[in-house]
Specification:
The complex is a heterodimer of chains A (252) and B (481). Chain A has a 6-stranded mixed β-sheet, with helices on both faces. Chain A is α/β, with parallel strands linked by helices and 252 residues long. Chain A is globular and about 55 Å long. The two termini of chain A are 30 Å apart. In chain A, strand 11 and strand 12 form a beta hairpin. In chain B, 48% of the residues are buried. Chain B starts with a helix and ends in a 6-residue tail after the last helix. Chain B has 481 residues and is of the alpha/beta class. In chain B, strands 1, 2, 3, 5, 6, 8, 10, 11, 13, 15 and 17 form an 11-stranded mixed β-sheet that branches. In chain B, strands 4-7-9-12-14-16-18 form a 7-stranded parallel β-sheet. Chain B has 14 helices and 18 strands. The chains are: A alpha/beta (252), B alpha/beta (481).
Chain lengths: 252, 481
């Protein structure tokens, strides 16, 4: 699905990623944890193709193609989805209209015919249930006036609608209360299957109680310094990041 | 004797010789403007003496005026003697099929979703008897006629309804009003006339009809709309299809007269040729549009979507004379490349309990300059007048400009006047968010801008709104980065 080799990137002359290696196979859920400023969100942005981030080395192969050569929209059309940490507002554009445009662009790029309104509404209705979303939300402008929790739920709803091959969740749990966290996690779990992969970026182990990962990686100073399974996340929760810093400090 | 002089001499000496027939191909006035030319125009149109008199008065007044320099637009000085003021509708080059059409224009038609039949009509392809515009026109006219609605060309109205023209022409926009209104009054070529009798609700948007009617719209148009007591009409002007015209200067006048309890809704989509990407060519559009709410509870709404012209100078206004009358102005003005727009409205509150709403959305891309200029005046006797103005500017890129010039003149203490203004940029973040959902940058800009204009588009009749949305996206192509 995704193969990251020695990925290096900088933003505004500051080197953030210092050689990331990560392989994600179909159906796997990888959690990426790490202290503030370790490069977690940068990794998400680089994968999605944000302009401000300059790749300075390494390669990324996504579904057999060179991801770094693709435009952001082509990455999305190929099945890469990023659930934003801070979703932006688009005033005057309804959620429904936005999603229909996005969905049909993706379908077009994959040689499918546009979905008609009736079918779209039907699917939207189903997916709204996944994240316990109110129908009125679809007629509101994209993220405008949404609470923090609503925005995150809306990201997962969009993911459910667009059915990506690989979803990157960038701190989707931040700012959520326990109920919202459960709803968001349920939405993600409902989308898990044999083919679809996830990269879940989080600061806290809490989310991983709900979305149980196959692998956990610790990112520190732009490198994955430790990988393990769910137990690693528990250990981090119990002991904090300092022991890792110390452990790594010896090696660096 | 030069060719021009010969024509003038012939015309002035030959007394109605060509009065009734004007089917000669090279049917145009000599270059320049003088009383002879105005007589020539009036003669060509076989106008009654009073009409010619009015034109001449306007012309003499125009001579005393100077060109306005206050708008925030810049262009080389216009030589008013280097313009041909009358030219009979030229035959468009006849194409045998749409395949012969300029591919760029064809692509725009397709993007706008204009039907093939209409594409043919707009581009001058010979159409079979599928759409016979003459018969369509007649059918409309018959059903409107049964209700007493008059809808015809201005020239026809001068002949068929002289009493109405005499009564209302210049009653809202007198020829003394401004430089371009005076010029228009002197030389106007043609336009539309619309009359809705008492208590009649015009059963159709006067749109399809108008589009059929106005394929070869003129350089100096004149429109007059009269709604009698309790009448209602929704009127559409213009067309989303790209309009190219060899005449660079356009100076139209629109007058609306709304009696007691009458409502007139006037919607425009204007897409004049804006010039090329370097800013060469393009139409100068200097328009005077004004409505008068003459009676109590009268209402006039202007909705405009402006995407064209190299230069736009236009302030659709409402004079709120009747007590409880309402004026509305909804506007989207888009400028791209090197376009300049100075547009807005005037709401003049004279009557008691009058109310006006202004929603203006300016969008600037490329190296364009977009100015909103609006006046809200509450006169001394206008008790309890209310105005709400919202002027938003949206910038695409960092080489364009947005300007807001609100003028508030309040002479009555009971007035409530609110003004809100915002300036925003289409954010990289918004575009990236759309990109990440599979939407290209071009489509993202279209989507974001359309969302931004929603309040105005909601005022447009459904089909028009859909076309306007597409038009907006096309107008903004290449506006970012």
């Amino acid at each position: 699905m995704l193969e990251i080799k020695n990925l290096q990137a900088k933003v505004e002359e500051k080197q953030i990623l210092n050689g990331i290696n990560l392989t994600v196979n179909p159906g796997e859920v990888h959690a990426i944890m790490g202290p503030n400023g370790s490069g977690k969100s940068t990794l998400a942005s680089v994968l999605a193709g944000r302009d401000e981030y300059e790749v300075t080395g390494g390669e990324v192969v996504f579904r057999g193609e060179n991801l770094l050569e693709m435009s952001p929209e082509d990455r999305a059309r190929k099945g890469l989805f990023l659930a934003f940490q801070y979703p932006v507002e688009i005033p005057g554009v309804t959620n429904a209209n936005f999603l229909k445009t996005a969905l049909n662009e993706i379908r077009k790029a994959n040689g499918q015919t546009p979905m008609d309104s009736k079918e779209f509404l039907q699917i939207m209705k189903e997916k709204m249930k996944l994240v316990e979303m109110d129908k009125a939300m679809t007629q509101r402008s994209v993220n405008e006036g949404f609470s923090g929790g609503e925005k995150k739920r809306n990201e997962v709803f969009q993911m459910a609608m667009l059915e990506p091959m690989l979803a990157v969740l960038d701190e989707t749990d931040s700012g959520l209360d326990i109920d919202a966290l459960r709803i968001v996690a349920n939405g993600v779990n409902a989308l898990r299957n044999q083919e679809r992969s996830f990269i879940v970026i989080t600061h806290y182990q809490r989310l991983l109680d709900y979305i149980v990962p196959d692998f956990v990686h610790v990112l520190y100073k732009g490198r994955i310094v430790k990988s393990g399974t769910k137990e690693l996340a528990m250990e981090l929760e119990a002991k904090g990041y300092d022991w890792i810093k110390e452990e790594v400090g010896i090696h660096i | 004797m030069t060719e021009d002089q010969k024509i003038i001499t012939e015309v002035t000496e030959s007394d109605y010789k060509w009065g009734f027939i004007s089917d000669i191909e090279s049917d145009q006035a000599p270059k320049g403007l003088n009383e002879e030319v105005i007589r020539f125009i009036s003669l060509k149109k076989n106008e009654p003496a009073w009409m010619l008199e009015w034109r001449l008065k306007a012309y003499r007044h125009w001579l005393t005026m100077t060109e306005p320099v206050w708008p925030n637009v810049h262009y080389p000085k216009i030589d008013f003697n280097d313009i041909i003021y009358y030219s009979a509708p030229k035959k468009k080059p006849s194409l045998n099929s749409l395949d012969e059409l300029d591919p760029e224009i064809k692509a725009t038609f397709d993007k706008l979703g204009i039907s093939l039949e209409e594409q043919k009509r707009l581009s001058g392809v010979a159409v079979d008897a599928v759409i016979d515009s003459v018969s369509v026109k007649t059918t409309f006219r018959e059903s409107l006629g049964e209700l007493g609605v008059i809808f015809c060309s201005f020239s026809e109205a001068v002949h068929d309804h002289p009493e109405l023209i005499k009564q209302y022409l210049g009653s809202v926009v007198p020829y003394t009003d401004n430089y371009y209104a005076a010029l228009n009054s002197a030389v106007f070529s043609d336009g539309s006339f619309c009359y809705i009798p008492k208590s009649v609700r015009c059963p159709m948007e006067l749109s399809t009809y108008f589009r059929i009617n106005s394929a070869g719209t003129g350089q100096f148009e004149r429109t007059l709309i009269i709604a009698e007591e309790g009448a209602f009409v929704s009127y559409l002007e213009g067309c989303t299809a790209p309009m190219r015209d060899e005449n660079q200067l356009h100076a139209a006048v629109v007058e609306i007269y709304s009696h007691k309890d009458a409502q007139v809704k006037y919607s425009t989509v204007q897409n004049w040729y804006p010039g090329d990407k370097e800013g060469k060519g393009g139409i100068y559009n200097f328009v005077t549009k004004r409505g008068l709410c003459a009676g109590t509870h009268a209402k006039i709404s202007w909705t405009q979507v402006e995407t064209g012209s190299a230069i736009t100078w236009k302030y659709p206004s409402v004079i709120l004379k009747g007590d409880y009358s309402i004026g509305e102005f909804y506007s989207v003005a888009v400028t791209n490349n090197y376009q300049q727009a100075d547009t807005g409205t005037k709401m003049i509150h004279l009557g008691k309990n009058t109310k006006s709403t202004i929603i203006s959305k300016g969008i600037s891309g490329g190296k364009s300059q977009n100015s909103y200029r609006g006046l809200v005046r509450i006169n001394r006797k206008a008790e309890n007048a209310r105005n709400f103005s919202q002027c938003d500017s949206l910038l695409l890129g960092d080489k364009c400009g947005a300007h807001t010039f609100p003028y508030l003149e309040v002479s009555n203490k009971t007035a409530i006047v609110e003004h809100e203004a915002t300036t925003s940029k289409v954010g990289e973040d918004q575009i990236f968010y759309c990109n990440q959902r599979g939407i290209s940058t071009e489509d993202a800009v279209g989507l974001i801008v359309n969302g931004y204009c929603k309040e105005v588009f909601n005022q447009l009749p459904m089909e028009f709104a859909v076309e306007a949305q597409k038009l907006l996206a096309i107008s903004l192509e290449g506006s970012v980065g």
